[in-house]
Design brief:
Elements lengths: L1 H7 L1 H15 L3 H30 L12 H48 L3 E2 L2 E8 L3 E2 L6 E2 L2 E7 L2 E10 H19 L6 E8 L22 E9 L4 E3 H4 L3 H14 L5 E3 L11 E4 L8 E2 L1
Parallel strand pairs: 6-7, 10-12
Antiparallel strand pairs: 1-2, 2-5, 3-4, 5-6, 7-8, 8-9, 8-11, 10-11
This protein binds zinc ion.
């Protein structure tokens, strides 16, 4: 490489000329012979050199005509090698960290949206909200709930207090709210907001009478509803509304709609114990629902 570079530069040509002058001072014959030999050599070299650029452009590993470009290439190399180990890992790590944080935030947001959508859902129904609670052992024989839930909302309608019942009863309550309460109330008062829960799980005998059978309330299969709260803040109560014309009609519709989803439906017309609430339970009777 270096030798070829020497040939390219004007210096070798001068040295050839100088040597020919020195030879000229000795003998003419030798000079001619030397001149001819050197001329041939120069022609071969010139021919060789004229071919070099073509080889270089053809992609051959030609290093002879690029000695001046080398320092520039070396500078680029130095820049690259000095920049890479210091800056790149930091940039990459920061970028990846941001990506991870961004991804993490997105995953968290999505997860929280999903959680909100089905948050507190129980009984395998996204519209039945509440919490699953531990089995309730009976205080007395015949009481207790094997798989109770603490119900807080049903089909978008709240409860004035969490109701402890089983899932079968929760599903019946949902059917009543959806197909009985909502259609009966309609747009009145801005629609149904919540149910006033008068009683749910409680270990007691029927109507609290000594010696009577254990109430369905003591088995987590009953719920008592005393009123329907509306979105405008008003309330339709069983006690005041049952014997009025307008609210009475609505309440009777609701009472009737409960027959079917529930096995037992009791209202103000049944007995003196149910003047201020509806009693609903999922006890099954051979003759179908018992509705009074
Ligand atoms: Zn009851």
């Amino acid at each position: 490489m270096v030798s070829i570079y020497m040939i390219i530069s004007p210096e070798p040509v001068q040295s050839v000329a100088a040597s020919s002058k020195r030879v000229k001072t000795r003998t003419h014959l030798i000079l001619d012979a030397v001149d001819l030999t050197e001329m041939r050599s120069l022609m071969v070299v010139a021919l060789f050199l004229s071919c070099l650029p073509t080889w270089g452009s053809a992609g051959a590993p030609d290093t002879s005509i690029r000695p001046l470009e080398r320092p520039a290439v070396r500078i680029i190399k130095e820049e690259v090698t000095s920049v890479r180990p210091v800056i790149r890992p930091r940039i990459i790590s920061q970028t990846r960290q941001r990506q991870r944080q961004g991804l993490g935030a997105t995953v968290t947001q999505v997860a929280s949206r999903i959680a909100r959508g089905s948050q507190g859902s129980v009984c395998g129904d996204s519209t039945i909200k509440g919490t699953k609670i531990s089995p309730i052992p009976g205080r007395i024989r015949g009481c207790g709930v094997r798989n109770p839930v603490k119900l807080t909302e049903i089909d978008g309608v709240g409860l004035t207090q969490p109701a402890t019942i089983d899932c079968n009863t929760a599903r019946a309550l949902k059917a009543w709210v959806k197909d009985g309460v909502k259609p009966a109330v309609g747009r009145r008062g801005g629609g149904v907001k919540s149910l006033r829960v008068a009683a749910h799980y409680t270990c007691r005998t029927r109507n609290n009478r000594t010696g009577a059978k254990i109430s369905e309330h003591g088995k987590g299969r009953a719920i008592d509803i005393s009123g329907i709260l509306l979105n405008d803040g008003s309330e339709i109560t069983v006690l005041k509304g049952w014997r009025t014309q307008r609210e009475g009609r609505m309440l009777r519709k609701m009472h009737k709609a409960a027959c079917g989803p529930f096995g037992t439906v009791l209202g103000p017309d049944s007995d003196r114990f149910h003047q201020d609430h509806f009693h609903f339970d999922t006890a099954q009777y051979r003759s179908g629902s018992y509705c009074r």
